[in-house]
Amino acid sequence: MKMKNGLEINANDTKHWYLEGKLHRVDGPAIEYADGSKEYYLEDKLHRTDGPACEYANGTKFYYLEDKRHRTDGPACEYANGDKSYYLEGKLHRIDGPAVECANSNKRWFFHGEEIKVSSLKEFLRMLRLKAFW
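-> structure tokens emitted (134 positions)
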């Protein structure tokens, strides 16, 4: 079987860029959908350092580094409905607020992927201080 290399366009007019059989493109998205959605890949892994790795036509955006949801300066997941999720190295995580903020005002707090059942930043920070002694 021949290894995929270069640009391929499928029946739905979706464009895929390959290098040695892997989704890969350094100068733009490796997948461009007909509706304008884009996904950035390096060596078959979702990855982008200068913006979201996934940008969908409905406004949803996902940030990835080496196939893990990750962003240090804001939410790694921004949904079209207004929901937001903060990730660090693939785990829900945020220390200056809730890691999950829903458009309906629901909030969930996480520290390195572990949910901390609290209802305010003050309570969350208190629990983190206590956790240092666990």
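The chain has a mean pLDDT of 95.
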